[in-house]
C-alpha cells in the first residue's frame, strides 16, 4: 500500500474514532508516516568491537527461576577462542569463573560465528557483578545487577518492548527505554527481522545482537518467541523452525520445568512472569497446555503478588492487522488466566499500541450467544506493545468503532514501563517515541488482582 493511501485511510480511521461515542480512546496523535528503513550495515550501532576475535553481541538473561543465575551469551567472529567467563564484585577482582559451551549453525549459505553460552550460578540477589570474556584474544568487561530476592513488596521496574527490529525507530525506542532506566526487559517477541531480508540474511541477526548489546549486556531481557523467530524456509532448505533464535537466545526453561525454550517462567522481585509460545502447540494435552496448568498452580501470590503473562500474538486486538490471530489461544487459556487472577497480559505482533480495560470473554458455550467481551474486574489488563519500530512499519488500520474492551489505542512507535511499587500498586506507562522518554502518552495505576481483586482500576 502506498504511503498516500495509508495516510488517507488513517485520516478516515481517525475521524471515525473521534465520532464514535464509545468509552475507549483512539488517540488523535498522528505519527509522521515516513518509511521505516533498517539502519545501514555501516551504522554506528552495528560497529564490530575492536580487537582480534573480540566478543560481540553480548547478552544476558536469567539462568534460573529466582534470579541467582544468569546465562551470558556472546559471539566470537574469527575463531572459537575461550568460552570462560570470569566474574566478581569489582572489575579488577574477577575471582569467580564459569566454563561456557559453544555452538554454531548454518543457514542456507550463511555460517554463524562461534556462539558461546556460559551459565553463572550461585549468585547473590540484588548484587552487582562485573564479568569478562574473550580471554586469550580481546577481553571485554561488562556488569549486571541480579534481581532482588522474590518477595511481596519488592519494587522493580520493567521495560516492556516488542517487535523491535533494527530501524532508526528501533534505535529511538531503545534509547528512550535506556533513559527511562528499567531493571530488566520483558520482550514480547520479534527481535531482528532478519527474515525480511533476502535469504533471511542471518548477518542481520548479528547486527541486531550488536545493536541491542548496549542494554542487554547489562540487564536481563526475558525473551518471547515471535513469528519472526521462526525462520522456517523450506524454499531455502531450512525446515527446522527457530534455528537462529534457539542457537543465539537461550532461556531458563528447564529451571521452570518446561520441555521447550519457548514457554517458561521466571520470578523477579514481586513478579511471577509466565512466557507463552504463540507458535508452539497449545491445544489440550500438548506439552505447553500441561505445563501451563501446572505452572499456574505453582504461582504463590503471597510471595510474588504480580502475575504477568507474555506472548507474541495478542488475544485482544482491535487493529485489522493480525486481527483474531490470537483467538484460538485465547479460547484455550483465557479462563485459566481469569481464574488465576493474572494482572497483566502483554503481547506484541501488531505494530501499534493498545491497552484494554479489564475484560473477559469466557461465558460462551457454543449455544448461549454470550460471545462478547464483558467488563470483569477479576480479569487481566491486555496490552499490545508491538510498537518497537521495525522494518514493516506501523499498523495504522484500527477497526471501527473502537470496541468497548479497548481503553486506549494509537498507531505510533514506543515502549512501556511497569514500575511495581509494592504488593498492591504498580504504575504502568506508555512512552510514545515522538515525545522523548519522559513524556507519558498513556499511564495508569494498576492495582493487584490478588490483593485488590474487585477494584476496577482501568476506567
Ligand atoms: C549467499 O547467496 C547469495 C545469493 O546467491 C549471495 O549473494 C551471497 O553472497 C552468498 N553468501 C555467501 C556467504 O556465500
Ligand atoms: C580460558 O581463560 C581462562 C581465564 O583466563 C583460563 O583460566 C583458561 O585456562 C582458558 N582456557 C583455555 C582453554 O585456554
Ligand atoms: C542510535 O542511538 C544512539 C543513542 O541515542 C546514538 O548515539 C546513535 O548515533 C544512533 N544511531 C543511529 C544509526 O541512529
Ligand atoms: C482496514 O481494516 C478493515 C477492517 O476493519 C478492512 O476491511 C480493510 O481492508 C483494511 N484496509 C487495509 C488497507 O488494510
Ligand atoms: C503502595 O504503593 C502505593 C503507590 O506508591 C502507595 O499509595 C501505597 O500506600 C503503598 N502501600 C503500602 C501498603 O505501602
Ligand atoms: Fe510478529
From TrEMBL:
<dbReference type="InterPro" id="IPR008963">
    <property type="entry name" value="Purple_acid_Pase-like_N"/>
</dbReference>
<dbReference type="InterPro" id="IPR004843">
    <property type="entry name" value="Calcineurin-like_PHP"/>
</dbReference>
<dbReference type="GO" id="GO:0003993">
    <property type="term" value="F:acid phosphatase activity"/>
</dbReference>
<dbReference type="InterPro" id="IPR025733">
    <property type="entry name" value="PAPs_C"/>
</dbReference>
<feature type="domain" description="Purple acid phosphatase N-terminal">
    <location>
        <begin position="55"/>
        <end position="146"/>
    </location>
</feature>
<comment type="similarity">
    <text>Belongs to the metallophosphoesterase superfamily. Purple acid phosphatase family.</text>
</comment>
<dbReference type="Pfam" id="PF14008">
    <property type="entry name" value="Metallophos_C"/>
</dbReference>
<dbReference type="InterPro" id="IPR015914">
    <property type="entry name" value="PAPs_N"/>
</dbReference>
<dbReference type="Pfam" id="PF16656">
    <property type="entry name" value="Pur_ac_phosph_N"/>
</dbReference>
<dbReference type="GO" id="GO:0046872">
    <property type="term" value="F:metal ion binding"/>
</dbReference>
<keyword id="KW-0408">Iron</keyword>
<keyword id="KW-0862">Zinc</keyword>
<dbReference type="InterPro" id="IPR029052">
    <property type="entry name" value="Metallo-depent_PP-like"/>
</dbReference>
<dbReference type="InterPro" id="IPR041792">
    <property type="entry name" value="MPP_PAP"/>
</dbReference>
<feature type="signal peptide">
    <location>
        <begin position="1"/>
        <end position="23"/>
    </location>
</feature>
<keyword id="KW-0479">Metal-binding</keyword>
<keyword id="KW-0325">Glycoprotein</keyword>
<protein>
    <recommendedName>
        <fullName>Purple acid phosphatase</fullName>
        <ecNumber>3.1.3.2</ecNumber>
    </recommendedName>
</protein>
<feature type="domain" description="Purple acid phosphatase C-terminal">
    <location>
        <begin position="379"/>
        <end position="439"/>
    </location>
</feature>
<keyword id="KW-0378">Hydrolase</keyword>
<dbReference type="InterPro" id="IPR039331">
    <property type="entry name" value="PAPs-like"/>
</dbReference>
<dbReference type="Pfam" id="PF00149">
    <property type="entry name" value="Metallophos"/>
</dbReference>
<feature type="domain" description="Calcineurin-like phosphoesterase">
    <location>
        <begin position="157"/>
        <end position="353"/>
    </location>
</feature>
<keyword id="KW-0732">Signal</keyword>
